[in-house]
Design brief:
- This protein has two domains: about 5-140 and about 255-300, Rossmann fold (3-Layer(aba) Sandwich); about 140-250, Phosphofructokinase domain (Rossmann fold, 3-Layer(aba) Sandwich).
- It has eleven helices and eleven strands.
- The chain has helices at about 15-30, 40-45, 80-90, 105-115, 140-160, 175-185, 200-210, 225-240, 260-275, 295-300, 310-315, and strands at about 5-10, 35, 50, 95-100, 120-125, 165-170, 190, 215-220, 240-245, 280-285, 290-295.
- It has a seven-stranded mixed beta sheet, with helices on both faces. It has a four-stranded parallel beta sheet with strand order 7-8-6-9, with helices on both faces.
- α4 links the parallel β4 and β5.
- The mean pLDDT is about 95.
- The structure holds adenosine-5'-diphosphate.
- The site of adenosine-5'-diphosphate has 17 residues, from α4.
- Pathway: Carbohydrate degradation; glycolysis; D-glyceraldehyde 3-phosphate and glycerone phosphate from D-glucose: step 3/4.
- One of its GO terms (biological process) is fructose 1,6-bisphosphate metabolic process.
- It is an enzyme of class 2 (transferase).
- One of its GO terms (cellular component) is 6-phosphofructokinase complex.
């Protein structure tokens, strides 16, 4: 291969820039020309493609978001849309594509491989909801953002002796809620992967209150519903004042942590190596701190597994 391209797609995540940088620089190291596709698959269909140089990825390793921008595209889900994309790649002489994004983006990448364009996926999402990898790029940064926010909320919760219900992102996955809950010492964590019993949550609040606890923090994953609903039920059943905080999109932004920069650098470079080794239709992952690659088909057929032992641990530490 002489020319390859990289794009970012779906929800953005901190560390995507570090992955783009790694891919561009690794390609240059191998003497291969890298192109950047702007605005994800939407931009690919419209030919928003530009050559990238060593300098075009300078000064971005520490920046959140993605310099290539991201987009969602309904048209690309159609056969005609995918053919447009393939035509653009052929016109530019591009022989392989790296897709940084989530599972939706990987399904799109699979379609391109079926149409003769070798693709490699790099998992970039704050949700950590991709199977076959221990971590996705952006998860650690979002986790740290949440923990920092909870620490601040804890200060005011203590001063006012209130119960705070904090809703965090993660789509259908509870990883962000679970890890943040344990790291910030929340009293209860409500996630889609584990059944929760409101009687138990209320009893834990009362038990804390009996031993003189002045405040409580409950983390709710967005995948189980709205924090406001839980707050209302707790208020009805305890008579205590509750406050709701929905952290929202601040969780998507910010300078990536050192962990995410490391992960992105390793994965971005590995994606280039895989393409040049003739691999296709695969996703890069990290398992036990080793970079691995797995077939898209296998990865997408599985369900992401949350580590329930962390949930059990959090319960035993928050009594
Ligand atoms: P994420 O990659 O973060 O999961 P999305 O699910 O929104 O985000 O997917 C990003 C884009 O990937 C979509 O807007 C669409 O263009 C493309 N895509 C998603 N699913 C498919 C599919 N089944 N076939 C083709 N393209 C898809």
């Amino acid at each position: 291969m002489q020319k390859i391209a990289v794009l970012t797609s779906g929800g953005d995540s901190p560390g995507m820039n570090a992955a783009i940088r790694a891919a561009v620089r690794r390609a240059a190291y191998h003497g291969v020309q890298m192109y950047g596709v702007y605005h994800g698959y939407e931009g690919l269909m419209r030919g928003h493609i530009q050559e990238m140089t060593l300098g075009s990825v300078g000064d971005i390793i520490h920046r959140g978001g993605t310099i290539l921008f991201s987009a969602r595209s309904e048209e690309f889900k159609t056969e005609a849309g995918q053919e447009k994309a393939v035509r653009q790649l052929h016109e530019h002489g591009i022989e392989g594509l790296i897709v940084i994004g989530g599972d939706g983006s990987f399904r799109g990448a699979q379609k391109l491989t079926e149409k003769g364009i070798p693709t490699i996926g790099v998992p970039g999402t704050i949700d950590n909801d991709i199977p076959c990898t221990d971590f996705t790029i952006g998860f650690d940064t979002a986790l740290n953002t949440i923990v920092e926010a909870i620490d601040k909320i804890r200060d005011t919760a203590t001063s006012h002796e209130r119960t705070y219900i904090i809703e965090v992102m993660g789509r259908d996955a509870g990883d962000l809620a679970l890890w943040a809950g344990l790291a910030a010492g929340a009293e209860s964590i409500i996630i889609p992967e584990a059944d929760h019993d409101m009687n138990d949550i209320i009893e834990r609040l009362h038990a804390g209150n009996r031993r003189g606890k002045k405040h409580s923090i409950i983390i709710v994953a967005e995948g189980v519903g709205s924090a406001a609903t839980y707050a209302e039920e707790i208020k009805q059943r305890t008579g205590w004042e509750t406050r709701v905080t929905v952290l929202g999109h601040i969780q998507r932004g910010g300078s990536p942590t050192a962990f995410d920069r490391m992960l992105a650098s390793r994965m971005g470079a590995a994606a280039v190596d895989l393409l040049l080794e003739g691999k296709r239709d695969r996703m890069v992952g990290i398992r036990n701190n080793q970079i691995v690659d797995v077939d898209f088909k296998d990865a997408l057929a599985q369900k992401h597994q949350l580590d329930l032992s962390i949930y059990q641990l959090a319960r035993t530490l928050s009594i």
